[in-house]
Amino acid sequence: MSEAMTSTITFDRAVTATGATSTRVADDKAMLRAAADLTRELSQPKPAVYWGDLIASCGIGYGALVVAASASSTAIVTVAAIVSVLALYRAMSFIHEVSHMKHSALPGFRAGWNALVGVPMLIPSFMYEGVHNLHHAKTRYGTAEDPEYLPLALMKPWTLPLFIVVSALAPVGLLIRFAVLSPLSLLSPRLRTAVVERFSALAINPQFRRRAPEGEAKRLWDRVETAASLWAIALIAMAATGIIPLRSFAIILGIAAAVAVLNQVRTLVAHLWENEGEPMSVTAQYLDSVNVPPPTLLPGLWAPVGLRYHALHHLIPSVPYHALGEAHRRLTALLEPGSPYHKASYTGLPVLVGRIARSTMIRR
């Protein structure tokens, strides 16, 4: 997930020694077959886990947000803000599960997530549904048609810090998108087209343009967008009239910005970003993606809700987040040491950031 509003920034590429060799990797049939066979019975989501995790994350996140926004002690504000960021980030990350799940298997979860997270945080599920699935399409991954891919490892060094810093503007951008652009777009078909195509996707590819929804998807979109628009207008009105003190409003925006930055950092290390636009085999896509498995503990905070197994997720996207750990253990035990499966595991965030940073500095 970026996973902020579609950026219009154009990144210049740096020609590097990493190249796009991954596009020439043939599929490892033994790994793909094992992934399918060993995880078949793990594909059923557990409603109690989903609802319990989401409700607990929201309860902790919003509770800490209220403490941070109302406390006078700097120390209390700081601690509460950190707790709020981590908990709300976890709650937000369920948008990834919503985009993959069969909604009949978890009745009401999408509506519940939108009510608890999507609308309050101005990231309704339609911003990811219909977008993220394109990232998993075999012929689109890593190409110009992938909304969630940029060859960051092949770009100029300055693009990496810019990629992170620009995400801090996401809360303001989302307020503008829903409080200003949504209502105005009702008056202008041309503006409405631009809003749908360019400002309605949690994507990082600035060239991506999404299609307008149709049928039931459009009806859901309209309902949730209306709710998000009314909420965004209400937030601005409450801040402008003093119902929400400006200091508290600034803290809330700061926490939201920190959530966006944390998510962008996670996005930065979700892949190796070494493909130059050619279609890739499933194995190549897997090797361009990242697992950060145990015993490392911190990924549970910066890559929650199964995102620490991002490479594995690309092999078995239908397996729910709570089963990915077991799937990883099974595959690790079965597949021989020389299997490509083991080559997508890394030890932590510093190693991954360092690898991408070095790649941007290498010249051919």
From TrEMBL:
Tell me which Pfam families the record gives: FA_desaturase
| Presence of keyword Methyltransferase | no
| CDD domains in the cross-refs | Membrane-FADS-like (cd01060)
Name any one GO molecular function. oxidoreductase activity, acting on paired donors, with oxidation of a pair of donors resulting in the reduction of molecular oxygen to two molecules of water
Q: Per the UniProt record, which residue ranges are transmembrane?
A: 48-68, 74-91, 111-128, 158-180, 227-244, 250-273
What name does the UniProt record give this protein?
Fatty acid desaturase domain-containing protein
Lineage in the entry?
Bacteria, Pseudomonadati, Pseudomonadota, Alphaproteobacteria, Sphingomonadales
Which InterPro entries does this entry report, sorted A to Z?
Answer: FA_desaturase_dom (IPR005804), Fatty_acid_desaturase (IPR012171)
Q: Name one GO cellular component term.
A: membrane
Where is each Fatty acid desaturase domain found? 79-342
List GO BP terms, alphabetically.
lipid biosynthetic process
What PANTHER family would the database entry show? DELTA(5) FATTY ACID DESATURASE C-RELATED, FATTY ACID DESATURASE 2
Which keywords fit this entry according to its UniProt record? Membrane, Transmembrane, Transmembrane helix
